[in-house]
């Protein structure tokens, strides 16, 4: 068991040897669009059931889909942000299957000719390392409706509000090797989507969901048989589900079994996956080009014009933060995770000590928000106020220690740091005569220790500093205290 | 009254505008005719009140001088077109009580131009058939023979029978593989299938989306021109509708065909065509030559593959298009203990045999493992057929063919679906190529049944198609009237 603690993430030690996970992800990202992919109905979340349903969504006889150009633009934008190939001709296909919440009896998707081809993303791992994950493709498709099975003992209710909402399916190559890597990959994709505004990345509302393909193999061997875990809607669940699924597969293989290719569901209450349908039960979707829609065709110059409108993306922004603010690559990768973080940071650090600002933001602010269960946007501390706090520290108005006190007051009262410092009289004392008075008092109170110190017990110096600081109620400037004490105790 | 019924659409329109007759008179004459000919079974739904209301409105406009192109003209609508607040069933049990809350673009265009609706016309179920025998509400009878119940053709059999029996001044149809042209030929009237994309498909119950096209069934070529003028037009709601303006076809009625080249494809004169049809086909060729056209033998080498390709592509699309009739949101539902069981019962009871057959064929040809061998190959054949036409249109302006290999057959006599499918052998190639075609009556066979000849033009050359068809119509002088309606 002692070995497990040294195992790399994504590795499982079995009786027969070391197993490695092979993971590929399909991310379904809902496009931030006011209307649906092929109808004018609203795509907003949380409306009363069946409010946002057009004749097209309900698949009334003779109704025809018309492509929403805004959604097409978002897909191209996303493709460009993923450094992927934009296919100048792509085709919509019908994926045929029967289900009560699929009014047309088919989902309009893209099968053989997706709008976006191969690309790649650089993913920042928790240990500060980076890895590159390949993108296989990105395609546009319609979402299905929702079946509600718990409203009636024998009947199911159908809500078509989601029917036809535009999704992008982003398919990775099987390049991911650990659950943690999968989590980081999803975070990176989410961050890119939010930067370019193509998807709000809201996993709780289902705007971003992932299907995980998991298999295991001994290092260097061919890929094993994979299972697909459907519809995971949080990064934590993605990590748990992959780990548990890989362990399940190793256990089967180690006892001489084989893996059945199947679709599985993750049970959040048990933390395990269970079979949803086997390969034999898998649908034959009978894909064929949708004759109601023309192929999507783009000119090179149109794609170029989209490219020119792209905002600065996390990777380049990260480099710039390291260069301009002198912060570590690791800190920068945390700050660029969310557009809101970078914006906040850049405002707070503007003209100030970049490193110090990053520390205060990442350690103190993020920590405090987490403790108070607040989202970043709910932060009581504005970028302006955090910046001011950093300035107060940098110019010696307050010490780092006092700053923490000021900070917790800022969290509570939303006041500016200078206001708090003034109100509470927390300004740092840097005046020599004031500090000398305190030093004299400490020396006269501790004659014995002074003798010991002067006799060679150097370690006692810190004690004197501490006493002076204590006497000043922490307000004395530690640098000046140090300097004057040294002179005094020569 | 019967003089009113004698007027064709162009004549009636003139008489209305000259205030010789009123739309109310005309509409009442047709409503009476509908009742007189009800034994034909052409109408599924008659909307008398609405017809009279619309006729009165038209009369107001005719009086105050704001008449529109089809002002006051009473027409019938094939039941494939969704009509707001009027039952629309596609002749299927599965939609037997379906009342749309919306109006198809084509019918809306007709109402916007002043036409008056008489009712909804029977057709083969979901337009799948060539005899109108697959209609859930029963057969429609061809009005030509008194003593025998002959098929009006299909799928627009109700439309063709109504126009031939003068219970509608004109009618709309839809044509997927010949569903306008073949019944027009069987019923001795004119049927025009426009270029794919000319008329919007929005609001027309879909059978095979890449082939379906609306068009008029009328007594004359000029009537067809006037109807199509109103029906056609770009529609943003149909992504496959062509963003082109069609010139006013009425300006092309008398352009003649001097110097035009007419191709006679050798593949259309093979075995199995009735002698009478060959005779009238030859006569038509001679007449066109006499009128100044140059007759050129041409070859469309892939013609023999058209029918098999069509019977893969159309069912494939249909199998998917008809998936929406699942009993969940509208239409008849058979309650059951599980969702799958409900689907089985609803669709099993709701669809007729021919529709089920095509859904099964379509599902099969799209299945994994068969897709390449059937659907993909059929699409390749379709492209070759299209290229055949493109090559021929480098040499000729129009192609002349028989509309059907035989004249109408007795109802209930053709039970083998494969023999039935052969009916569309001359109309399917133009459908696969998306080209406009018109069938017009040129004579009667020995038993007194009408014979149709088809003209096929290049894409979006409806004007030229009309000019040429008019020449043939005038020179052949077909002036028989269907008088087989049992009174």
Write out key terms for the chains shown:
heterodimer; A: 490 residues; alpha+beta; Arc Repressor Mutant, subunit A; 3 domains; nine-stranded mixed beta sheet; three-stranded antiparallel beta sheet; B: 487 residues; alpha/beta; Amidase signature (AS) enzymes; eight-stranded mixed beta sheet; three-stranded mixed beta sheet; 11 strands; globular
Walk me through the topology:
The complex is a heterodimer of chains A (490) and B (487).
Chain A: E1 11-14, E2 17-30, H1 69-81, E3 89-90, E4 93-96, E5 106-109, E6 119-124, E7 130-142, E8 146-148, E9 157-159, E10 166-172, H2 179-196, E11 208-218, E12 227-232, H3 235-254, E13 262-267, E14 272-278, E15 288-289, E16 296-297, H4 300-309, H5 314-325, H6 329-335, H7 339-349, H8 354-371, H9 383-394, H10 400-413, H11 417-424, H12 432-445, H13 447-454, H14 461-471, H15 478-488
Parallel strand pairs in A: 12-13
Antiparallel strand pairs in A: 1-2, 2-10, 2-11, 3-16, 4-5, 4-15, 6-7, 7-10, 8-9, 11-12, 13-14
Helix pairs in contact in A: 2-3, 5-6, 7-9, 9-10, 12-14, 12-15, 14-15
Chain B: H1 2-6, H2 9-17, H3 23-36, E1 43-46, H4 48-63, E2 74-78, H5 105-112, E3 116-121, H6 157-164, E4 171-175, H7 181-186, E5 190-193, E6 213-218, H8 221-231, E7 261-265, H9 275-290, E8 294-298, H10 306-321, H11 339-350, H12 353-366, H13 372-392, E9 398-402, H14 417-421, H15 428-433, E10 437-444, E11 450-457, H16 462-476
Parallel strand pairs in B: 2-3, 7-8, 7-9
Antiparallel strand pairs in B: 1-3, 4-6, 5-6, 5-10, 9-11, 10-11
Helix pairs in contact in B: 3-4, 8-16, 10-12, 10-13
């Amino acid at each position: 068991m002692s070995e497990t603690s040294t195992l790399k993430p994504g590795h499982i030690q079995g009786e027969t040897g070391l197993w490695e996970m092979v993971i590929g992800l399909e991310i379904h990202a809902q496009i931030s669009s006011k209307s649906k992919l092929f109808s004018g109905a609203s795509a907003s979340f949380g409306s009363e059931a069946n409010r946002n349903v057009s004749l097209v969504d309900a698949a009334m006889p003779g109704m025809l889909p018309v492509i929403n150009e805004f959604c097409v633009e978002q897909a191209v934008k996303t493709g460009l942000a993923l450094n992927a190939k934009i296919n100048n001709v792509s085709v919509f296909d019908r994926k045929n299957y029967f289900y009560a919440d699929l009014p047309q009896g088919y989902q309009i998707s893209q099968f053989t000719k997706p709008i976006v081809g191969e690309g790649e993303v650089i993913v920042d791992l928790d240990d500060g390392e980076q890895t590159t994950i390949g993108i296989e493709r990105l395609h546009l498709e319609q979402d299905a409706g929702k079946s509600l099975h718990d409203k009636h003992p024998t009947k199911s209710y159908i809500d078509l509000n989601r029917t036809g909402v535009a999704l992008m399916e982003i398919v990775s190559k099987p390049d991911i090797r650990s659950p943690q890597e999968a989590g980081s990959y999803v975070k990176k994709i989410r961050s890119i989507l939010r930067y370019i505004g193509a998807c709000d990345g809201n996993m709780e509302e289902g705007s971003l969901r992932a299907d995980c393909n998991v298999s295991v193999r001994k290092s260097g061997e061919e890929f094993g048989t994979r299972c697909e875990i459907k519809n995971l809607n949080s990064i934590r669940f993605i990590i748990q589900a992959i780990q548990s699924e890989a362990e399940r597969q190793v256990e089967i293989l180690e006892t001489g079994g084989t893996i059945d290719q199947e679709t599985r569901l993750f049970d959040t209450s048990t933390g395990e996956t269970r079979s949803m349908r086997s390969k034999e039960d898998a649908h034959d979707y009978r894909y064929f080009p949708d004759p109601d829609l023309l192929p999507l065709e783009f000119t090179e110059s149109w794609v170029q014009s989209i490219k020119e409108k792209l905002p600065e993306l996390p990777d380049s922004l990260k480099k710039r933060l390291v260069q301009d603010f002198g912060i570590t690559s690791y800190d920068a990768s945390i700050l660029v995770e969310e557009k809101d973080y970078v914006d906040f940071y850049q405002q707070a650090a503007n003209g100030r000590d970049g490193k110090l600002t990053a520390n205060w933001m990442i350690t103190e602010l993020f920590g405090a928000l987490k403790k108070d269960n607040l989202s970043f946007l709910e932060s009581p501390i504005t970028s302006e106020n955090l910046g001011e706090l950093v300035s107060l520290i940098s110019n010696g108005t307050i010490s780092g220690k006092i700053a923490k006190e000021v900070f917790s007051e800022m969290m509570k009262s939303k006041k500016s740091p200078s206001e708090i410092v003034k109100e509470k009289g927390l300004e740092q004392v840097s005046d020599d005569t004031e500090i000398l008075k305190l030093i004299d008092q400490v020396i006269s109170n501790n004659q014995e220790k002074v003798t010991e110190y002067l006799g060679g017990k150097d370690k006692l110096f810190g004690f004197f500093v501490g006493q002076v600081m204590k006497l000043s109620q922490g307000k004395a400037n530690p640098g000046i205290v140090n300097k004057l004490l040294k002179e005094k105790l020569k | 009254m019967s003089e009113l019924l004698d007027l064709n659409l162009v004549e009636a329109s003139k008489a209305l505008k000259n205030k010789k007759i009123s739309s109310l008179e005309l509409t009442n004459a047709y409503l009476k005719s509908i009742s007189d000919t009800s034994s034909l079974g052409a109408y599924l739904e008659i909307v008398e009140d609405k017809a009279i209301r619309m006729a009165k409105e038209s009369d107001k406009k005719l009086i105050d001088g704001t008449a529109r192109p089809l002002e006051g003209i009473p027409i019938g609508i094939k039941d494939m077109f969704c009509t707001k607040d009027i039952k629309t069933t596609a002749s299927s049990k599965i939609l037997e009580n379906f009342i749309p809350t919306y109006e198809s673009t084509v019918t809306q265009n007709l109402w916007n131009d002043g036409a008056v609706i008489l009712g909804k016309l029977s057709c083969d179920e979901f337009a799948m058939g060539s005899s109108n025998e697959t209609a859930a509400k029963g057969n429609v009878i061809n009005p030509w023979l008194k003593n025998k119940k002959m098929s009006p053709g299909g799928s627009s059999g109700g439309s063709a029978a109504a126009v031939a029996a003068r219970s509608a001044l004109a009618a709309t149809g839809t044509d997927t593989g010949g569903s306008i042209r073949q019944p027009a030929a069987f019923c001795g009237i004119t049927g025009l299938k426009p270029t794919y994309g000319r008329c919007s498909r929005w609001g027309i119950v879909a059978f095979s989306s890449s082939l379906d096209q609306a068009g008029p069934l009328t007594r004359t070529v000029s009537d067809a021109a006037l109807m199509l003028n109103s029906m056609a037009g770009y529609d943003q709601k149909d992504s496959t509708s062509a963003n082109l303006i069609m010139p006013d076809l009425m300006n092309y009625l008398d352009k003649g065909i001097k110097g035009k080249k007419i191709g006679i494809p050798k593949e259309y004169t093979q075995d199995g065509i009735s002698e009478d049809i060959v005779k009238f086909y030859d006569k038509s060729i001679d007449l066109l030559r006499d009128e100044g056209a140059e007759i050129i033998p041409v070859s469309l080498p892939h013609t023999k593959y058209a029918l098999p390709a069509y019977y893969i592509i159309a069912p494939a699309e249909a199998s998917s298009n008809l998936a929406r009739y699942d009993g969940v949101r509208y239409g008849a539902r058979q309650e059951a203990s599980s969702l799958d069981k409900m689907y089985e019962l609803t669709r099993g009871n709701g669809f007729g045999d021919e529709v089920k057959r095509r859904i099964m064929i379509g599902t099969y040809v799209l299945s994994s493992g068969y897709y390449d061998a059937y659907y993909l190959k059929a699409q390749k054949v379709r492209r070759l057929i299209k290229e055949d036409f493109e090559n021929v249109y480098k040499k000729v302006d129009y192609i002349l063919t028989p509309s059907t290999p035989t004249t109408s057959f007795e109802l209930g006599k053709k039970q083998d679906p494969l023999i039935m499918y052969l009916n569309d052998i001359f109309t399917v190639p133009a459908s696969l190529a998306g080209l406009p075609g018109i069938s017009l009556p040129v004579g009667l066979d020995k038993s007194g049944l009408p014979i149709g000849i088809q003209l096929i033009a290049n894409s979006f050359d409806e004007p030229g198609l009309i000019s040429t068809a008019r020449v043939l119509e005038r020179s052949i002088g077909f002036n028989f009237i269907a008088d087989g309606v049992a009174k």
